[in-house]
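<goal> How does this chain fold?
<sample>
Here is the protein in question

***
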Amino acid sequence: MFRRGFDQFRNMRDSEGFDFGRGFGGFEKMFGGRGQERMFKKGNLQFMILNSLKEEPKHGYQIIKDLEEQFKGFYSPSPGSVYPILQMLEDREFVSVTKEGNKKIYTITEEGENFLKENADQDEFAKRMKQFQNFNREDMKTLGIDIKETVNAILTASKEAMTDEEKRKQFDRFLTQIKEQAQNLYKEDDQNDK
């Protein structure tokens, strides 16, 4: 137990993904990079754009700003990613376009609303984005620092546990206890919600 627990912490500490400064892995973890599975796939943006247009008709810049706000500053889609999707949505007749001066105003069509309804269960990304609704970047930064300090304290204790058999047993009990507490942290709340 002890050796496995220590190795897990060491691997976590040494891995590239152990970065709390930019949201538990930062941009690469969320949107893919360095061979990681992408949490954010290209098709997800079309759902987000259509959902944004359900609120009201918007021009491209407004859509980009809305998306940036939904991502809480972690990601700002470029015009080069948004406008081709808007063109594709227009080609599929999911949005209609009107001109207002030199700006194009995009409005979701009935076909676009039907597409959203028919594919609501497939929009896993929207479900993940709901986790960000109450997200506060400063709180997350503080939490990341607290977690890093806690992990460092555990690593320090684990090194000391290697020097003595009794300390090793004590450390194993400690790891088991915090693991169980973490796994059961919200179970009582979940049962009360039912």
